[in-house]
Amino acid sequence: MKTQFIPTLLLSTLPLLAVDIQTVHSSASLYYELRDFSNSVQKDDGAFVGVGGDIHYKEHELRFTYEKGNVNTKQPPLQENLNNDILFLRYGYNINEKLAFNTNFINVMYDNMVPTDEAVAYGLGVTYSPSKALSANFTQYYTNYQIFESYQSDLALHYKSSYEKLKYKISLIAKHIDLRDKDSNIFSKNAQNNYTTAGFKFHSHYESYHFGFGAYFGKRVFAIMNDGFKIQHHAMEIDKTYALGIGKTFGDLVIRYQYIYQRAVELPMQNKNVDIVNNRFIVNYKF
After folding, report:
1. Peptide bond into 77 cis (omega under 30)
2. N or C: which end of the chain has fewer CB within 10 A?
3. Three-state DSSP state, 109
């Protein structure tokens, strides 16, 4: 049943594209991510593949990504490698030039290692743009992890500008996470009741080149990241995140590389100083 959902979703967009091709612009994306764990008592390394796209039609925007991951684990103590499948959806509607809203949906469709398998998250947000340069978004998420619940509030401020041929965007982000019924199980028992973390992002374009960096400070766990396109559903309390990205545009094709470093604590066994390094390669095609 679940495996039929994504083809059905893609087929359902074809009538939309056929309505008025002049008002539609879309893109398809593919990423491949290598993830390495140091000092972990459970994980060694793994690979993740994501496919998705976005469709813009008049005031509407639909984004979707399907991610499949495989991680080699330490055996013992674990008896098998990790496999998971996650679906991300986001719908946005522009009411006018200053006001828009967004809805998000995340489903951990399969995870063979943790009790947060089949977790479902929902998000509802609003964006206010007093000018073309400045905008603010507030999104409230609710996640049902089956064995506990999470409420997450995101506030993001964005500023866009340019200097000669350089275009850039600066984002300031704050997240607050409240966990409910976390003491009901050993998986989440060692987490705090709530977390607040802050971060910033910088992204720039110079002719056909892209460059960006970002960082998060403050602890977080079971967090929804990347505008609703990442969910950290394993019990890892992350206290530092640093990211760097570069890319280049070739006509309608964009190729990018991202390096992400995170430091975490594996909460069930209180194993500290776990280093997580992600190397992500992204291809985006606009049509």
Report:
1. yes
2. N
3. strand
Overall residue count recorded for the chain in this entry: 287
**Sequence-ordered list of residues with C-beta below 8 angstroms from that of 163, at least 6 positions apart, any chain:** none
Query: One digit per residue, pLDDT tens: the chain, 287 residues?
Result: 344 444 444 334 433 333 343 445 799 999 999 999 999 999 999 999 999 999 999 999 999 999 999 999 999 889 999 999 999 999 999 999 999 999 999 999 999 999 999 999 999 999 999 999 999 999 999 999 999 999 999 999 999 999 999 999 999 999 999 999 999 999 999 999 999 999 999 999 999 999 999 999 999 999 999 999 999 999 999 999 999 999 999 999 999 999 999 999 999 999 999 999 999 999 999 98
Assign 183 to helix, strand or coil: helix
Show the CA angle centred on residue 157, arms to residues 89 and 127, nearest 5°.
50
d(CA 112, CA 245): 31
SS3 of residue 270 by DSSP = coil
CA distance readout (Å), 282 to 20, 150, 225:
29, 30, 17
DSSP state of 184: G
Which residue from 75, 73, 13, 6 is spatially nearest to 43, judged by alpha carbons? Answer: 73
pTM of the complete model: 0.90
* Cβ atoms < 10 Å from Cβ of 260: 17
Tokens in use for 15? 């009538």
Helices (H), the chain: 5-12, 14-19
